[in-house]
Amino acid sequence: MSEKQAGLNGAYYGPSIPPKRDSYQSVGRGGGPLGCCCSCIFGLVFKLIFTAIVFMGLAFFVFWLIVKPNRVKFHVTDATLTQFNFSSDSNLHYNLALNLTIRNPNKKLGIYYDRIEARANYEGQRFSTITLTPFYQGHKTTNVLNPLFTGQQLLVGSNLQSEYQKQTSAGVYEIEMKLYLRIRFKFGRIKTGKFKPRVECDLKVPLSTNGNSATIFETKRCKIDYFKAI
């Protein structure tokens, strides 16, 4: 017993106590004040962008529910081609008159046609460009335009003459008309910004001689793309 007590009265050597760590961390490392600040800023920016996108989406959805917009309809209802021939120097001589109807089916949207440029192409080459008179189109109305392409234009292509001979034998020419538009929509007193849609009409036009043709032109509905770049 005395030996145990003697042992207790001696010095006690326990495990070493680890040194006290510094209470600060290096600036710029993860978890530091700067890192926390940056993450907060990025989080706030992300929330603001997300909120703006959601708000714009809801606003567009509400506008669509109120207005219920429909696509404008373009039709070429008649075409008269009285001249379409190549001269010896590869100049195309042409005289093409079209009837183009534009139907606005919307009950609450009017349309300003600020610029209407019509182009006529043959076998991928443009042979004529004209500009039509601007106008305003009201709700649920139909307007008729009469683009007239006349003149001559030099056209050169490897397969141009062979395709022309085939279509001449058939008595029908494949002509493409494109409309390059600059429009604005009107809702009540509100006017939108400018849009630049493109309209494409693939036509099969018979050649008329003295106003007569063995083939009757068939009405063609055109395609419209509101977001295609000019």
UniProtKB/TrEMBL annotation:
Q: Name one GO cellular component term.
A: plasmodesma
Cite the Pfam families for this sequence: LEA_2
Identify the InterPro entries for this entry.
LEA_2, NDR1-like
Top-level taxonomic group:
Eukaryota
Which keywords annotate this record? Answer: Membrane, Transmembrane, Transmembrane helix
The Gene Ontology biological process annotation of the record reads: defense response to other organism
UniProt organism field: Fragaria chiloensis
Q: What coarse category fits the chief subcellular location reported for this protein?
A: membrane
| Location of this chain's protein in the cell | Membrane
Which residues are in the Late embryogenesis abundant protein LEA-2 subgroup domain? 100-200
The molecule here is called LEA domain protein 1
Provide the topology term for how it sits in the membrane: Single-pass membrane protein
Transmembrane regions listed in the UniProt entry: 48-67
